[in-house]
Write a structure and sequence with these properties.
By secondary structure, the protein is an alpha+beta fold. The chain folds into 2 domains: about 130 residues, 60s Ribosomal Protein L30, Chain: A (2-Layer Sandwich), CATH 3.30.1330; about 250 residues, 2-methylcitrate dehydratase PrpD (Orthogonal Bundle). It is about 55% helix and about 10% strand. The chain has 16 helices and 7 strands. The protein has a 5-stranded mixed beta sheet. The protein has a two-stranded antiparallel ribbon with strand order 1-7. Helix 12 runs parallel beside helix 14. It is globular and about 70 Å long. The protein starts with a helix and ends with a helix.
Amino acid sequence: MNQNAYFVQQIKDSMMPSTGCTEPVAIALNTATARKHASGSFVRLTLTLDPYLYKNAMGVGIPGSDERGVALCAALGVTAGNADAKMNVLGEVSEEALLKAKELQADVKVEVLQSGSTLFIQTELYTDIDAIRVITLGEHTNIVDISHAPFPQFEYKDEPLGEAEIQQYSLKDFIDFADTVAVEELVFLEEGLKMNRTIAAEGKNFGLGAQLESLLEQGLLADSPATAAKRVTAAGSFARMSGVSLPVMTATGSGNQGITLFLTIDAVAQKLNIAHERELRAIALAALVNIFGKSYIGALSAICACGVASGLGASIGICYLLGGGEKQMLGAARNILGAISGMVCDGAKEGCAHKVELSAGLAVDAAMLAMAGRDVSEQDGILAEDLGGLFSNLGYLVNTGMAKTNEAIVEIMTRK
């Protein structure tokens, strides 16, 4: 496989449609898989989660439901989940299935591991004649075990992040790809654009999206590329986190990261009338940077990746839209990490839309400043000269320096 083909496949593998926030959806996929393989009538279910995934499933909206909670996510997977639909497992939730799930959640026991950042979901589902265990490990859809009782031994190990293959490449390699890949190879990105534009349009009708539209109409927000990016990404994120039953094209396992990556670049391209082919190439470049960044910080962490991964990728993509080169792109990356590298992830909920709004607006500003020759010095704080150094430092900060941060966040959230 040549380099361009490898990069195209990496981007495709990092994207998947999801109806609803990916953490509760991953729980529902796991329990739906257990129910699919179990015989007999449901009796009870024990769900075990890593603390990072638990944090992101506690309070976020669930598609098709007027209530929230981890136990309800699990129960909905049993009563309404389509295990063959992957992250669209809750794409169709009937009133009957929802009512049944509300009844079943009393028989769902939720346990949380004391520590560990490797994504982990384990369901033990018991019926009147059967018992089955399903384990998801590392990624939201990576089901590694489906076993009937007696269950074989499985030991959860919180493996440190190893060196990913994509870390062998540089920003220059990603730029060369964006310049040379046949545009026909990027047509698949159209689906993500359409999907994420659709939920953003829905989100402009209520909540944060509607309020930002009102502020614009009152003249209290400037009609600028940065504002355009903030409006569309905030609307899409708020709708998604509220539980709107519309799919989103995710990026590296996150719908909000997909919204940030696609729609920030799209807003600037539309505002500045940039050719569509150029936009697709910019999105592809941003996607590779996002994949590269997440390989250092992990699938789930104590920081908000919408800012430091997908937002940073979008900022580099905007530099590409505007004709910038590697120098300007690295400047934009330093402008991002020099500003919001410490924005924590305190669980999935509607408030995430404010972080997405901030990340999208900063992505545009960071790119514009870098194009004008202004960027934060590589000597500042945790910054570095090149993209690998930037993300290596960030990964060390997150995975070593902030090892206890997630525990503190979960403790605060569970005290409420």
